């Protein structure tokens, strides 16, 4: 295996401190993904440098000119604080002729916008929840909230990682929807999307590849102890607060006892979504399996989280990849994918 010069692109606040060595250090959780990837690159024998990027692409150009990396490991989720601009970085890398890990610019643009991606999927007859967009630039009115298939979930149209999603995101009528939309506008300053709540099992499936696609084993978000007053949705607390998950018996595990034929349907569906949204590298898709057996695509997450403890890594491990092999796979896909941007 060729030893590579890898340029890690990180947010400045996510650069691990030089004195952070002990996994038990309370600061470790914040930098977990960055440290996991950095250590995996070292174990693989690659040479890695960290390039912090916020609102200026000059550091990238300087690193490319002075160091001439073989590939960039893209761990950026926004540019200048705007998630909708994350595709700028990979577009620039493509212009510089630098291969990069993860999704191409077009796939990032199409998948990041939850409304646009749903329109594309619906056009291709992929089942998605009904939805309506509430722009931040326009006052949300009861008229726009009328005649929707309640209950609904209100979330940011752009943000990932369950940002802005709480139990109060579940709304049962137009009045509750308007209140939550206004709260979200104030919180994020971004457009909101209200989508039909689909009662059922929450499933996650990872797809890797450019032209030849590999689908990894299906993961599931399981709610064991929630009382009837709480809704089974992937809130920000569920995603990021381990103590909260322990308290309410919420767990991520491999999907069990799926109805006959459903796994094959999901695998086929995942590849269709990936191709419709013109994705590359890898992505995690969020699905709902309704009680009537219908499968709904909630969203597609390009460049999903890849720490050792995230769903992508667990699914890859079950498929036969240890963590270092997963990181090498992403590097290899990036090196082959320049023509996809």
UniProtKB/TrEMBL annotation:
One of its GO terms (molecular function) is D-alanine-D-alanine ligase activity. PROSITE patterns: ATP_GRASP. It comes from the Bacteria. Residues 118-332 form the ATP-grasp domain. Pfam families: Dala_Dala_lig_C. Belongs to the D-alanine--D-alanine ligase family. This is D-alanine-D-alanine ligase. The lineage of its organism: Bacteria, Pseudomonadati, Pseudomonadota, Gammaproteobacteria, Thiohalomonadales.
